[in-house]
Design brief:
By secondary structure, this protein is mostly helical. It is 73% helix and 0% strand. The protein has ten helices and no strands.
């Protein structure tokens, strides 16, 4: 049998990752075996092991195919540092809402990562990536709030670090709730309204 070309091997790899997204979303990561993924992908278990060392390696590769919602916001903030205004905070917060609600693959992977994964053992590395992106997002909001406070746009009696964490909790909670029931509310609309309400409480 002729060996697969590089392009064919890459196609098989993507096929396996596509199947993993679907099976993880249906069965959960812990209850999914590599044989389950191989069957869904229409390949042998050996083919899965050819491309991935184990399930944790496959899971990490699946995550690496997408930019998670808060990572999108962080990337944009680092590329174009926001100004010290409340409108800048609103713009930052709307980025993950838009990334999640308009990209089916991002939604699927985020849902698996948030609701169908136990971050123990070999999966801990994926949890660290998630924690790092969240910490970066919170720090960016904190930085904007500090500048806004210095400019007189945010109350001087406010603990802005706590306010940044609170704003992130609002964002994270809405995204988690929406992925459980996407048809229950409009993430962009409700997210904007909730964020505006939160930000109004920061003003002098």
């Amino acid at each position: 049998m002729a060996r697969k070309t590089k392009a064919e091997a890459q196609e098989t790899r993507q096929q396996i990752l596509d199947a993993a997204e679907q099976v993880f979303a249906t069965r959960g990561v812990a209850r999914t075996s590599l044989q389950d993924i191989a069957g869904a992908a229409g390949v042998t278990r050996g083919a899965v092991y050819w491309h991935f060392q184990d399930k944790a390696d496959l899971f990490e590769a699946m995550l690496n195919r997408v930019v998670m919602p808060c990572e999108s916001a962080l990337e944009q903030a680092l590329a174009n540092p926001p100004e010290s205004t409340l409108s800048s905070l609103l713009d930052m917060v709307l980025v993950p809402f838009e990334a999640l609600s308009t990209n089916a693959q991002t939604q699927r992977v985020f849902t698996v990562a948030m609701h169908y994964t136990e971050y123990t053992g070999d999966m801990a590395i994926a949890q660290q990536r998630h924690n790092d992106s969240l910490a970066g997002f919170i720090e960016q909001m904190h930085s904007v709030m500090l500048r806004g406070q210095a400019a007189g746009q945010i109350r001087t009696d406010l603990d802005v670090k706590g306010a940044a964490i609170g704003l992130f909790a609002l964002v994270d909670g809405l995204m988690r709730q929406w992925t459980l029931a996407p048809d229950s509310f409009d993430l962009m609309k409700v997210g904007r309204q909730a964020t505006l309400g939160y930000l109004s409480g920061l003003q002098p």
